């Protein structure tokens, strides 16, 4: 079982390998280095390593990266949106990774035990996130549901899907185009904590919302960076 620390270490290796394959990475600023996954070969390597790390959220960001100057420009926009989400969305843990953002909500914040109906107070949190998504329309969003390993694998997979769908429903209710959102349930298959401990199981019960550039943002970034 991989811990979050191990997965983040693997992700760092992916960035380093991809950066060596990308052109001009040595001249990038701190912000640019965060997005420096080279196009072409580097992007393929990043996607493969992200998948091998067993983390859907990180894999989506690495696999969709464009790298180079365009990636740096995208990273700069993501810096701004991540800061906005941190300031306006209570209950969310916000992580900047490469050319994307991962917003993590503990299932305890969003749902009652073994339920998939978003709590009333949590709906307000998601509505504030939806406002940020409205302010930044040139992005795609992946919603990934996760559980701990309590109960059967089949039940946990179903619960994770229903919870991810419930989050999507709240977000799209605030005039967010549903075509921007993709939903996945991973059940108990991608733990970030130790399922043998109470704290570890609490970490594993979560919904991750991954924000990445859409094709329009990528095209604009490539054009601007030429």
UniProtKB/TrEMBL annotation:
Residues 98-215 form the OmpA-like domain. One of its GO terms (cellular component) is cell outer membrane. Residues 1-23 form the signal peptide. This is OmpA-like domain-containing protein. It is found in: Cell outer membrane. Its main location: membrane. It holds the Pfam family OmpA. InterPro entries: Bact_OuterMem_StrucFunc, Gly-zipper, OMP_bac, OmpA-like, OmpA-like_sf. Keywords: Cell outer membrane, Membrane, Signal.
